[in-house]
Design goal:
Layout lengths: L4 E5 L5 H8 L4 E5 L5 H8 L4 E4 L7 H4 L7 E4 L9 H6 L3 E4 L5 H16 L2 H9 L17 E5 L3 H12 L3 E5 L5 H7 L1 E3 L3 H4 L5 E4 L13 H4 L6 E5 L8 H10 L2 E6 L18 E3 L8 H21 L13 H25 L3 E10 L6 H13 L11 H7 L3 E7 L7 E9 L2 E10 L3 E7 L2 E6 L3 E8 L4 H11 L4 E8 L7 E8 L5 H8 L4 E8 L13
Parallel strand pairs: 1-2, 1-3, 3-4, 4-5, 6-7, 6-9, 7-8, 9-10, 10-11, 11-12, 13-14
Antiparallel strand pairs: 13-15, 15-16, 16-17, 17-18, 19-21, 19-22, 20-21
The structure holds nicotinamide-adenine-dinucleotide and D-malate.
The site of D-malate (MLT) has 9 residues, from loops.
């Protein structure tokens, strides 16, 4: 008798998804919702697959010692409730359904803007309390107002399209959106979020919660927001600082706040609840019949395909590469990914196009996979579930061109990979190679040769090649107790006085004051901190 694969459904799921599981021979399912702690741990050990929304947290503890579970499917986008490193370590594939709820969430953000503008919630409340307050609830029109959109991925772009039809003026910020794509959407791109804050009547965020987006609107931003602004968050709690929002509302700087998501969920009390100008919903962005049917059916199908045919789609922690190819390319995939991480942090934002050049022996390998690995590194900090499988598609969706070429001519190294990224009117260039087949090294930066480990904390500096630079930086690092593990400089010509670059491998992140002191040196033009994984650490999708 063929083996039966047991699936546990950990959150309420649309019936259509359950029906699909029930109709598939060889698949059995059970619904067990509201689990945590030891109950969740014990349940996960009894099943081959699991499907959930955002109501359950699959932590490392919940997976500890699990020898049975093979696949976890998130019926939705964000996988921040699943410890994917723990899952990867146990060989569990984590998949999601990235597009099923895009439109519903975009519509919810627009509904929130409208609810704020027309006082829908308080007006109805006053009506059921027996009042007929026509003058109290004077609203504002959306047409001809300015909407700022932070994050122009799937949902942000859908919001832009609807908002355009409502005759809003659109300003946007996303570190990865080509100018042409922004023009198609009718969005004026700005160089950073701060630049848009004094200009927008409405602000809607559509990014993951990252170190960069946490507290995007906090107390320091209150003074620069346009007075009377209305703020919407249907992305992730924590992007707006809830205490700062309460302060801004109380002072009158902010006219309205609409939240669907909270720093802590479920959120049953908040200083914001009940304040005038606030509309809140309990994480309902994706809660439409259509979106839930779509994510449930897509999610169930992912599990069915995985258990009946072995097919893996939308995996966020594993690459669909056969083990032999993987073994031959692992070192280069790691190098390509690290170069992508470096370029994203060096160029920072406004990325328009990228090109890669493979030279020497590596040019004869499957460079398409290396190009995808570079794209995954480039987008890793910006997009939640990027990996070698989806990275190039994500770049294309943002209108960013990624070209590659290869030449088997051997240069200074038997193999090398160079990357160029155009961003904010400048071209950033770097090249890397592998030492001993496994150790990634940076061998060119901005056209200058050097040699640096591609791991840990790097401090890159562009400078004029005059005496005393290395001593000055060394002294500043020493004063701030930052140990320099390795140092390398490269200059454009053999003569001193010209353009030069330097890279330091540091044992810890220098404090901001140290960076300011380095920046203040008269011959130093730019200073950038780059954070890379420790030596030997591979990305999840590469089995790290
Ligand atoms: P996406 O990956 O398609 O888009 C995210 C975009 O944010 C990317 O284009 C990325 O470049 C951009 N970004 C990252 N960091 C940024 C920064 N510092 N500044 C500006 N832009 C930045 O994701 P998506 O599918 O559009 O989802 C967006 C968010 O909405 C996610 O956090 C997701 O979890 C959340 N979401 C919420 C609900 C809900 O029910 N409320 C439903 C679906 C998705
Ligand atoms: C998501 O990430 O898809 C959303 O938060 C919606 C959800 O699943 O509740």
């Amino acid at each position: 008798m063929a083996a039966v694969h047991k699936i546990v459904v950990l959150d309420p799921l649309a019936q259509e998804g359950l029906d699909l599981l029930a109709a598939t021979p060889g698949i059995e399912y059970e619904v067990r919702t509201g689990l945590k702690g030891p109950d969740l741990h014990a349940t996960l050990a009894e099943f081959d697959g699991a499907i959930l929304r955002s109501g359950v947290k699959i932590t490392a503890d919940a997976l500890e010692g699990n020898r049975r579970l093979k696949a976890i499917v998130r019926a939705g986008v964000g996988t921040d409730n699943i410890d994917r490193t723990a899952a990867t370590r146990l060989g569990i594939v984590v998949m999601n359904t990235p597009t099923g709820n895009t439109l519903s969430t975009a519509e919810h953000a627009i509904a929130m803007m409208m609810a704020l503008s027309r006082n829908i919630a308080p007006a109805y409340q006053s009506l059921i309390e027996g009042r007929w307050d026509r003058s109290k609830y004077m609203g504002t029109q959306l047409a001809d107002k300015t909407l700022g959109i932070v994050g122009l991925g799937r949902i942000g772009q859908a919001v832009a399209r609807i908002a355009k039809a409502l005759q809003l003026r659109l300003i946007g910020y996303d570190p990865f959106l080509a100018q042409d794509r922004a023009e198609e959407l009718g969005v004026e791109l700005v160089a950073n979020v701060r630049d848009m804050l004094p200009r927008v009547d409405y602000l809607s965020v559509h990014t993951p919660l990252t170190n960069e987006t946490r507290d995007l609107i906090g107390e320091p931003e209150l003074d620069i927001l346009k007075p009377g602004v209305r703020l919407v968050n249907c992305a992730r709690g924590g992007i707006y600082n809830e205490a700062a929002l309460a302060k801004g509302l109380a002072s009158g700087r902010i006219a309205g706040v609409a939240l669907d998501v909270y720093a802590e969920e479920p959120c049953k009390t908040s200083p914001l609840f009940g304040m005038p100008g606030v509309v809140c919903t309990p994480h309902l962005g994706a809660s439409t019949e259509e979106a839930q049917t779509q994510v449930a059916v897509e999610g169930a199908q992912l599990l069915i395909d995985f258990f009946t045919t072995g097919a893996i789609r939308h995996a966020i922690n594993m690459a669909a590469i056969d083990p032999k190819t993987l073994a031959g390319l692992k070192g280069y995939l790691n190098l390509a990914h690290r170069l992508g991480l470096l370029m994203a942090q060096w160029a920072k934002s406004g990325v328009q196009n990228c090109s890669l050049r493979y030279r020497g022996e590596v040019a004869a390998k499957e460079t398409q996979l290396l190009t995808s690995a570079f794209a995954a590194g480039l987008l890793e900090a910006a997009c939640e579930d990027v990996n070698i499988v989806n990275a190039e598609v994500l770049l294309r969706e943002r209108g960013i061109e990624l070209k590659s070429e290869r030449t088997t001519d051997v240069g200074a190294f038997s193999s090398s990979m160079s990357a160029q990224v155009s961003a904010d009117g400048r071209t950033y260039a770097a090249a890397g190679t592998l030492f001993g087949n496994v150790m990634p090294r940076l061998v060119k930066l901005g056209g200058h040769r050097l040699e640096t480990y591609l791991d840990g904390t790097l401090l890159l500096f562009e400078h004029r090649d005059v005496p005393g630079i290395i001593g000055a930086i060394g002294t500043i690092c020493g004063r701030h107790n930052v140990n320099i593990a390795q140092m390398s400089v490269g200059r454009a010509t053999d003569k001193p006085g010209g353009e030069a670059v330097g890279a330091l491998n540091l044992d810890s992140q220098p404090p901001d004051e140290a960076l300011e002191e380095i920046r203040a040196h008269r011959a130093i033009k730019t200073v950038t901190i780059i954070k890379l994984p420790p030596a030997g650490k591979l990305p999840d999708w590469l089995g790290g």
